[in-house]
Design goal:
Layout (H helix, E strand, L loop, with lengths): L1 E7 L8 E6 L2 E5 L16 H6 L2 E3 L5 H4 L2 H6 L6 E3 L1 H6 L7 E3 H4 L6 E4 L2 E7 L7 E6 L4 E4 L19 E8 L9 H14 L4 E4 L5 H12 L4 E4 L1 H8 L21 E5 L7 H13 L1 E4 L8 H5 L5 E3 L8 H9 L2 E8 L8
Parallel strand pairs: 3-4, 4-5, 5-6, 10-11, 11-17, 12-14, 12-15, 13-14, 15-16
Antiparallel strand pairs: 1-2, 2-3, 7-8, 8-9, 9-10
Protein name: Cft2 family RNA processing exonuclease
InterPro entries: MBL (IPR050698), Metallo-B-lactamas (IPR001279), RibonucZ/Hydroxyglut_hydro (IPR036866)
Keywords: Exonuclease, Hydrolase, Nuclease
Length: 342
């Protein structure tokens, strides 16, 4: 029997965190932050945190990993399990860490702790992102992390023909139906209507690099400008071959440019200054969720700002297809402000 306690991530986009009691183990899946400044942390008390035998972080984004230091402040000292890439992208310093990708073979069932088996695969969301199953002699759990099998850039190992007593599955896009092809069509229409240079605030890990590769593959006549954080990822292509499909970011010397900055909510002063310039002299494209009261949300309705959501999560149709190809006794969907039941 598996008991799930939701500490965040259902009925909200962020704060993804789940306390799992899978006898004889108790553990935490992810420890995300909410964007609500008055109540940002997972809904776990210190007793629950210190009952956990270990913590798994599925990937580096703050809505899955941003509360790790807070957990430590609450007394957490048990093993952390994550990939090496996730650990490095989060700039962690925690000796009690087990690197999943260096300890357990990908897509193979391995002994994680005595009495607990683990199997993991790449989830197609960003560098270092994974899904996994955890099984005892009595029960089996699947956690998708942020799972996107249709990524243009990131490898994804399909979840297929998997048995689980409980499956916790990403459904961030719920009833939305857009695809990468839809995004590209809207992007091309925008280029036709405007001669402006473009600014695109994007996450520095994940969607940003994928959009850069997609744009240059489809529009090689555009000049691509990457900020320091995104350019660093580009230069580290060789060491991330496990996660990234082959791609080319060779840019033209065109006068017309697309400028990508790794600050999706436009929080940094230098990002705001850049955005203010583009509001007057160019066009801004927002490609993801704008958090409440962020600068990105504040400018989202201005004349030269366009919202073109790029898919990096599954929608309900994709989730139903996933369920069809597996054998889950109970399914819990997370990562959406909508509460969805299947």
């Amino acid at each position: 029997m598996i008991k799930l306690s939701v500490a965040g991530g259902i009925g909200e986009h962020g704060r993804n965190c789940f306390l799992i009691r899978q006898s004889p183990f108790t553990y935490i899946l992810d420890c995300g932050l909410s964007q609500e400044t008055f109540d940002p942390y997972p809904h776990l008390d210190s007793t629950e945190i210190n009952q956990a035998d270990f913590l798994i972080i599925s990937h580096c984004h703050s809505d899955h990993a941003g509360a790790f230091q807070w957990l430590r402040q609450q007394g957490f000292q048990k093993p952390l399990l994550c990939t090496r890439a996730t650990y490095e992208l989060l700039h962690l310093d925690y000796d009690n860490t087990i690197f999943i990708d260096e300890t357990f073979p990908r897509m193979k069932t391995s002994l994680c702790f005595p009495g607990l088996e683990i199997k993991w695969g790449r989830s197609g969301h960003c560098i270092g992102s994974i899904w996994l199953t955890l099984a005892t002699s009595q029960s089996k759990l699947l956690y998708s992390g942020d799972y996107y099998p249709d990524s243009q850039l990131y490898y994804c190992d399909s979840i297929d023909q998997t048995d689980a007593d409980l499956a916790i599955i990403d459904c961030a896009y719920a009833t939305q139906t857009f695809t990468a092809a839809d995004w590209l069509y809207q992007f091309n229409k925008l280029l036709e209507r405007s001669n402006h240079n473009l600014l695109m605030p994007v996450p520095k890990n994940g969607r940003g690099l994928e959009l850069a590769a997609l744009i240059l593959n489809q529009k090689p006549d555009l000049k691509l400008i990457l900020d320091e954080s995104l350019f660093k990822q580009y230069t580290q292509l060789e060491q991330n071959k496990l996660w990234l499909k082959p791609y080319n970011l060779k840019s033209s010397d065109s006068i017309r440019s697309v400028h990508l900055i790794g600050d999706p909510q436009i929080q940094l002063d230098k990002s705001r200054q850049l955005a203010e310039w583009y509001l007057k002299n160019g066009t801004i494209i927002l490609s993801g969720t704008c958090y409440k009261d962020s600068y990105a949300e504040q400018i989202s309705r201005q004349q030269h700002v366009h919202t073109l959501i790029y898919p990096i999560h599954p929608n309900l149709t994709m989730v139903k297809e996933l369920i069809k190809h597996n054998h889950f006794k109970k399914v819990v969907l997370f990562h959406s402000q909508e509460i969805i039941e299947i």
